[in-house]
Amino acid sequence: MSQRPANSAALATRLVESLGGRYSAQLGIEIDRGGDQIERWALAATLFGARISAKIAERTFAVLEEAGVHSIADAGRRDIGRLIERLDAGGYARYDLRTAERLHALARTLQEEYGGRAGSVLDLPGDELEPALHALPGWGPVTVALFLRELRGLRPGIDPPLDARTVQAAEHLGLLVRGAGIGQLRDLARAAGLDVRDLEAGLVRLSFAHDRHMAECPGGSACTALVPRGHPLQAAC
After folding, report:
1. Which phi-psi region, left, alpha or beta, contains residue 138 (left: φ > 0; alpha: ψ -120 to 50)?
2. What's the pTM?
3. Are residues 175 and 120 in the same domain?
4. Same domain, 45 and 13
């Protein structure tokens, strides 16, 4: 089994500085405070889980918050027509009705089963948590993985395995050896002075930045996704 390169910590830091870390932090959500911050993150994760760009999801989240919609429960209390208007303003035109109906369905389910709060789902035992999240209307594997990834370590039992995109991106940069898992990523984050959730999110961002062209990139410290913005090499991504 090969070893990580000596500059792994510096490369991990460069990754997060270049592409960003947690999506929640970028949105101004302080997840570690819990409470209403988790409700905000559940709303954001629902938007990010749709087949739409991260920029549109971020803009739509901001538009909803400006309108006083800070949680799935808040969205459920809004008239469908008004909610669609806000989604359209954020850029969700193709998915506005579907997303509005999904938010209303989510709000009903959370009210009926969890007192209206997404954070209450996190109180379930570890073996029941993911099935319960998957059972939420419209919450498929992408949304569940995103939601839990940024909550990693916040409560006992929230420690999902690395997903395939994260592993592929880490191997592409030479940050993890084949077969490594979350323990090794934690060690690397510690060495780099990073929150492991920021490093994990940065790797997901790298995967998205490359899309289908990762095999054409030299990887490692020469990865074209990590060159300065506007550099000609970024065209290869």
Report:
1. left
2. 0.89
3. no
4. no
